[in-house]
Amino acid sequence: MIIIVTLILAVAFALYISPKEEMPKGAIQHMKDRGQLVAVLEPNTLNYFIYRGEAFGFGLSLLQEFSLYLDIPLKVIACSTASQAYYYLDYHVADIMAYNLPVTRQGKNLAQFSSPLLETNLVFVQHTPIVVPSLDELKEDTVVVQKNIFFQPLYDRFLSKTGSNVYLKEVSATFEELFQMVSTDSIRHTLCPENLAIVLSQVYLNTDISLPATRNYPVAWALNHSSDSLREIIDYWLDSIANNRLLPKTFREIYHNPRIVNHFRSDYFSLISHRISPWDEQLQHYSKLFWWDWRLVASLMYSESNFIPNLTSHKNAYGLMQMIPETAEIYGLDTASNISQQIMAGVKYLKWIDRQLPPDIKDPRERASFILAAYNLGIGRVLSLRKKAEAYGKDPNVWHGNVEYYLLRRSGSDPYGYADTLKEFPVNYSMDGYVDGILNRYYHYLNLLPD
Q1: Phi, psi for 91 (deg, rounded to 5)
Q2: Quick one: angle between helices 5-13 and 364-377, nearest 10?
Q3: Which domains does the chain have, with CATH numbers?
Q4: What gap in Å lies between CA 168 and CA 219, rounded to an integer?
Q5: 296 pLDDT band (50/70/90 cuts)?
Q6: What are the pLDDT digits (tens) for 407-440?
Q7: Cross-strand partners of 102
Q8: CA nearest 234: which of 69, 100, 81?
Q9: Cα–Cα distances in angstroms (integers) from residue 172 to residues 146, 176, 222, 446, in the given order
């Protein structure tokens, strides 16, 4: 049975927007019942981006650590506008608005805040070489700023500092987009958080960020007013990671990483090029044979070869799709096959696996999981795992926590498996995390890269 993964997987994971109401049982219990910690992240150079096939960012790294701490899977929603992100938070679609939000008295009327993550300030961004040396010298000028309800008190403070008829024009654009517009002379001035501006000024060398526009302010995550239990556990966790130096270490790795400037020069930086790999066009073309989203095939390819062509494994699996010689031969592949032939063979193999699976596996996410597992293990072993799961009372049509269980663990009564199931694999077999790794990366691709 062929499945259409392009939209179905995304829909299957979409969150239902319920009417605005008090969160039942407390925020933590609500997340456990839902099965996910849901956070809204702003795509930008410091918090959330894809570089050479993998998702990175300060905000993402912290959320991933917090998710592990809670032992609740993380779901990220990418959102470029603060108003939409706040909507998700206000209606309990998201648990955390993980933006670098200023903690202000007015902001506390909209949401409650975690303990501060860091401190920064707004700086006045202008085009060089002609710059205004002091804010006092701004006369009847227009400063274009991001439309953001949480930053409004800081904008007001900036206006009070200018002492002149400065006009603020609020637009629906990211801080990065506005910074770039100053660099290209599309606008004259903007305001930007200094921690982000320091990085961007190394990329856009014809900008000046020397004028502070506000005093330092604390930066924190925002939560719904009804999420007291979540705020308490976040604050406890933040205090613990600050004490063990994880927070400063993560901060330095992202904010003070000189290599981040090189991202802007890369063809595979999602915020600039909107590309995953050198093979995007071939992936888009051949994925249509299977009716899968090409980004899911790209995530599989990244797991198999890290987008490195001509790669050969210790088992002689070859190429971008890492097909073993016996399988490759079926599809006419050898070490001389070009990139297009490798991708086409890999997609055809995925299609063949799908046809071998029983139609009883109807859930799109579960079916995709079985296909990915079979790509790695072989269809025979996956079908044997289904039989074992069924024999021990697990659902044979559900990979996660059911069929997967008998790949990653042994039962007390049957520690070695039976027939051809599991006997070849040690307990720490590398399949652990293979399927989820591909799916999680795919959802980041969905968030940050166009269809």
Answers
A1: -100, 20
A2: 120
A3: 5-118+219-263 (3.40.190.10), 122-215 (3.40.190.10), 280-448 (1.10.530.10)
A4: 23
A5: very high
A6: 776 544 444 443 333 333 333 333 457 899 999 9
A7: 219
A8: 69
A9: 6, 12, 20, 22
